[in-house]
Design a protein that fits this description.
- This protein is 40% helix and 14% strand.
- By secondary structure, the chain is α/β, with parallel strands linked by helices.
- Strand 6, helix 8 and strand 7 form a beta-alpha-beta unit.
- The protein has one domain: Rossmann fold, CATH 3.40.50.300.
- The protein binds adenosine-5'-diphosphate (ADP) and magnesium ion (MG).
- The site of adenosine-5'-diphosphate has 16 residues, from helix 2, strand 7 and helix 10.
């Protein structure tokens, strides 16, 4: 029987929610913020490892040419290693690019500096925003979560990541002007919804590098919560030196120091992500806009406003 494409997409999305606990269809989460140094990579590695520790089957995709996720999970620089570049640009089978990490149930698609070329080489290509989505489509049945660590930019690589994702998790450093950065990012997200990925949801906003001894951290956290409400994860990631040390040992925080505050926080975040997935599954074909918490405040879902037509995606609408 022929099923119209839209119907089959919808069924896939709905059944994905129900089948997820059976581990059959991954939720793809982009970890994104155009700003550098906010904790994207730290979150990608440690959320991935924590989800794996809960028995989930995880694929971590390093979509940043800096390759910090690749190094941080235990793969020192090696020019001979195949990376996302080989799959995206050279058409290498993805099987030959995926690496098993030392963490059980956690695989990696590595990157290195060659990936810089991909952002440029994709420019003239057909369906240039959807290359990663096509690559991941075949892998979704093997994992329960696919986490994509995004570059600190809004280039074609980042657009590929956002086009491939069900949701975006936004780490925000608890610092001065944090709120301005997020508004910009949400504008971008609205543009993404209008152009390359109408389905993308907000997985949640994650407060990182929180220092409970400073008034600034507390103030920023309070502002973000009052603005974004339930879309902010309950879990807060504290500033914790063990989190900063772990990558130079090529280890996630769970392997490096399971008793640290950082390990505790990322374990808590993984629980929250899983609980939200279960809530969504329970709600069936609920709104694609579900945020970190139960409800989604109007603020973050509101129209992007006057900036909407700006540069974001080179526009093959979906
Ligand atoms: N919670 C934290 N506590 C202490 N240091 C952190 C924490 N999160 C990240 N860092 C450190 O801050 C720097 C930037 O973090 P990173 O995850 O690489 O950010 P991004 O990927 O957004 O550029 C890194 O040196 C990292 O080790
Ligand atoms: Mg990074």
């Amino acid at each position: 029987m022929l099923v119209p494409r839209e119907t089959s997409c919808l069924l896939e999305r709905i059944s994905g929610r129900f089948r997820k606990s059976g581990g059959l269809l991954a939720r793809v989460i982009a970890i994104a913020n155009q700003k550098g140094g906010v904790g994207k990579t730290t979150t990608a590695i440690n959320l991935a490892a924590s989800l794996a520790a809960f028995g989930e089957k995880i694929l971590l995709v390093d979509c940043d040419p800096q390759g910090n996720t690749t190094g941080g999970i235990g793969f020192p620089k090696d020019p001979a290693r195949r990376t996302l570049y080989h799959a995206l640009i050279l058409g290498e089978p993805i099987e030959r690019v995926i690496q098993q990490t030392q963490v059980g149930r956690l695989d990696l698609i590595p990157s290195d500096k060659n990936l810089v070329g991909a952002a440029i080489e994709l420019v003239g290509a057909e369906s240039r925003e959807y290359r990663l989505r096509e690559l991941l489509a075949a892998l979704r049945e093997r994992y329960t979560y696919i986490l994509i660590d995004c570059p600190p930019a809004l280039d074609l690589l980042a657009l590929n990541a956002l086009a491939a994702s069900d949701s975006v998790l936004v780490p925000i450093q608890c610092e001065y002007l944090a709120l301005e950065g997020v508004s910009e990012l949400l504008d971008t997200l609205m543009r993404i919804r209008r152009t390359i990925n109408s389905q993308i949801a907000i997985e949640g906003i994650l407060l990182t590098m929180y220092d409970d001894r400073t008034i600034l951290s507390k103030q920023v956290a309070a502002d973000l919560r009052s603005f974004f409400g339930a879309q902010v994860f309950t879990t807060v990631i504290p500033r914790n030196v063990r989190l900063a040390e772990a990558p130079s040992h090529g280890k996630s925080i769970l392997e490096y120091d399971i008793h640290s505050k950082g390990a505790e926080a990322y374990t808590q975040l993984a629980k929250e992500v899983i609980a939200n997935a279960e809530k969504r599954a329970g709600a069936g074909a609920g709104s694609a806009d579900s945020g970190a918490g139960a409800g989604s405040p109007a603020s973050a879902d509101a129209d992007a406003g006057p900036n909407e037509r700006a540069d974001a995606a080179g526009g093959s609408g979906s």
